[in-house]
Amino acid sequence: MNSLKPLGVVLGATLLAVGMSGGQASAAFAVGRANTAARVATAKYTVIDNYTGHPRSGTVKGIPPNGPLPMPESSLSCADKYLKDALFTISCTGKSRFYVVVDCDNGYRYPLELRGSLRVRLTCPTGSRALSGGAYGS
Question: How many domains does the chain have?
Answer without folding.
Answer: 1
